[in-house]
Design a protein that fits this description.
The complex is a heterodimer. Chain A is α/β, with parallel strands linked by helices. Chain A has one domain: Glycogen Phosphorylase B (Rossmann fold). In chain A, 31% of the residues lie in helices and 19% in strands. Chain A has six helices and seven strands, in the order H-E-H-H-E-E-H-E-H-E-H-E-E. Chain A has a seven-stranded parallel sheet, sandwiched between helices. In chain A, helix 4 packs across helix 5. Chain A is globular and about 40 Å long. Chain B has one domain: Glycogen Phosphorylase B (Rossmann fold, 3-Layer(aba) Sandwich). In chain B, 43% of the residues lie in helices and 13% in strands. Chain B has six helices and six strands. The chains are: A alpha/beta, B alpha/beta. The interface between A and B is large, with 51 and 37 residues.
Chain lengths: 175, 178
């Protein structure tokens, strides 16, 4: 998988173009925003006005979601669940490749498996990591959410009742 | 038009068949479009297709008066963001419809949102559809009469997140990305 020109250019630290076009992004490093198709992606996209303030690359598992992110850099990886080992491996390798190419300073995800890989591997590669547990996990934290905890620098739940000491923090929701 | 959607991952025949039977019984079958995923038993009366690309899905939501779906957050938010009422049925793990009962919890969590209604029982779907259509008719009658007082007219969710989560994330990312 080959990173798009814009993403690869900035990841390599090459000179940027003249001061025209979109406003100057907040922050020097790249932001990787990743979520699986469906509700995970729908929740992530609700943060777009904020995420677009940074040098963001969006990653999901369905090519058709490009319509949701305008002209922002957009990449697709294989969807995976813990029931399918082959796809898990493929998904993890694609995520790892993206991380190596883009060298994000922050990885933010709303799940599920590819987001978890990005969090786990991104952390190993030095990124700060944000796990936002899905709104769908209204009564208990998702399995990937619980596993994410160890690798997340910021762990948010969207339901106040699920916040706890040593666990996720509640800071509102994407609704 | 009523748009039925089961999400992108798994079929959900219990929902599709409930709507199919209701639509047939009430003579509304020609006014329903369903996205049913890879079902072994597709509906008999209503129009259906297995999958939809996101752009197709968005167009169907825009065109619909009412969304009937599984209790996925993506489905619920897509409907409410488009200002459309949404009726949902929760997938049950005991019926092999999903991997855990998170959709049952989702119904409880969204219950207070304007324009949302949900159930865990397929038998409850026709009544919720009728109620939602009744509310829509009232809103339309109210609008036609120049009144804007019907509380159900306030169906809607802003397209993007607001509130404290934005400041929390911005503070974190500003520090980490500088």
């Amino acid at each position: 998988m080959i990173a798009d020109a814009r993403a690869a250019g900035s990841a390599a630290g090459s000179a940027t173009g003249p001061a025209e076009g979109p406003p100057v992004p907040r922050g020097r490093k790249r932001l990787l925003a990743i979520a699986s198709a469906g509700g995970h992606w729908a929740e992530l996209v609700r943060l777009r006005p904020l995420l677009d303030e940074y040098k963001v690359t969006y990653v999901t598992t369905n090519r058709g979601y490009r319509v949701d992110v305008g002209d922002q850099p957009f990449r697709v990886v294989t969807e995976a669940s813990r029931w399918d080992r082959l796809r898990l491996v493929r998904s993890a390798l694609q995520v790892l490749w993206l991380l190596i190419r883009l060298r994000p300073g922050v990885v933010i995800t709303t799940g599920a498996a590819p987001g978890w890989f990005a969090l786990f591997l991104g952390k190993k590669l030095g990124a700060k990591t944000i796990w936002i547990d899905s709104l769908a996990n209204g009564e208990e934290l998702s399995m990937s959410g619980q596993r994410a905890a160890k690798h997340a620098d910021l762990w948010l739940t969207q339901w106040p009742e699920l916040a706890r000491e040593g666990g996720p923090e509640y800071a509102g929701s994407v609704l | 038009m009523i748009f039925v959607t089961v999400g992108s991952q798994l079929p959900f025949d219990r929902l599709v068949h409930a709507v199919d039977a209701w639509a047939h019984a009430t003579g509304r079958a020609s006014d329903v479009l369903a996205q049913v995923s890879s079902s072994d038993a597709p509906p008999q009366h209503i129009e259906w297709q297995e999958e939809m690309q996101p752009s197709e899905f968005n167009a169907a939501v825009e065109k619909a008066d009412l969304i009937v779906g599984h209790a996925g957050t993506g489905t619920i938010m897509a409907a409410l963001c488009a200002g459309k009422p949404v009726v949902v049925l929760a997938r049950r793990v005991g019926l092999q419809e999903t991997r855990n009962d998170h959709q049952v919890a989702t119904i409880e969590r969204f219950r207070d949102l304007q324009g949302f209604s949900g159930t865990t029982e397929a038998e409850g779907i026709p009544a919720l559809i009728e109620e939602a259509l009744g509310n829509l008719a009232e809103v339309q009658a109210g609008t036609a009469a120049g009144g804007g007082s019907n509380p159900r007219a306030g169906v809607g969710l802003s397209p993007y997140a607001t509130g404290p989560i934005l400041e929390r994330l911005r503070g974190f990312m500003d520090g980490a990305l500088s």
